[in-house]
Amino acid sequence: MSSSQALIVPFDPSAPSQAVAGVLPLQLWSLTPSGDKAPKAGTTATFYNTPAGKTTTISSVGDGFAAKAGEVKRELVRKSVGAAVKELKAFEGVKEVVVDASLDPHAAAVAAHLALYKFTLKTNVPSPFDPRNAEPAKDKIAFAPVEKSAEWDRGVVYAQSQNLARTLAEYPANMITPTAFTERVRKEFEGIANVEIVVRDEAFNPDTAQNVFLSVTHGTSEPAKFLEIIYKGAADKTAAPLAFVGKGITFDSGGISLKPGAGMKLMRGDMGGAAAVVSAALAIAKLQLPINLVVTTPLTENMPGPSATKPGDMSVEVDSFSPVRLLTKRRISDSS
After folding, report:
1. Is 100 within 8 Å of 143 (Cβ atoms)?
2. Following DSSP, what letter does each residue of 166-221 receive, concatenated?
3. Is the bond preceding 306 in cis, omega lying within 30 degrees of 0?
4. Do residues 121 and 240 make contact, with C-beta atoms less than 8 angstroms apart?
5. How many CA atoms lie within 13 A of 230 on its CB side?
6. 16-33 per-position pLDDT tens digit
């Protein structure tokens, strides 16, 4: 039976065996039924009560690891640690896992937290992803490195931000409306220095020529939002910022030009661009990177309502004093 504590040890089958937290991975591997060839990256074996009171999973990084290029090594460590986590998370009793991150602390931290992630809204066991939860979701397993390092901590931020993007994109459309999206973003950025969150509604400055965006909102009853995240981490707060723009259609039915019904539920993911840029900004802000950043994402649903924009409703107006403006014919006639 597995214990509540476990150890993950990535190992190079072609390198001299070194003890990690009282474990000799090559010696353990020799006890498994294996052939003459070195185990491929991600090949695992789990041992109970090794060392006493713990479960240990060893995982290969592949033959000739030391001779590989830097980025190749990093990916092999991710594959190795990820495979070990997937094996351990099948054991209900495992609650704490110590990871030997000596080969690449950053890669090990990213892999552990990404591999642990599993989105579910099933109700037979209360889901940690239920947006009605008062407290943030807690990980099923708590990870820690054998030796603490800044690179491990940095990798955790990377993985947590990626997992936020995965969560936002997985929510069904009734749980991640434009309003719910902006509320979740505000909560995620609470207490982080140098960040300003601005949420605008449909009345936001019509002179910015955003009528193309607004025309998409005509068929839905959900209020549209325009989200801005402003992060000023550079020494010069007035320096030109990096800009991220993400598409935020929280459900895209196709509007009047209705998409095929088969697989339409996947169009909840049409806000994946918004999820990605928001999550990238969260990592940047948590790490307090020395840059200025502006994130903008328009958020709405595209639905076939009675006021939905129809094919052919778009018109282009050009004059010598302003850039091209895209307007809807309905709005032109309303203003005449």
Report:
1. no
2. HHHHHS-TTTS-HHHHHHHHHHHTTT-TTEEEEEE-TTS-GGG--HHHHHHGGG-S
3. no
4. no
5. 9
6. 767 787 899 989 998 998
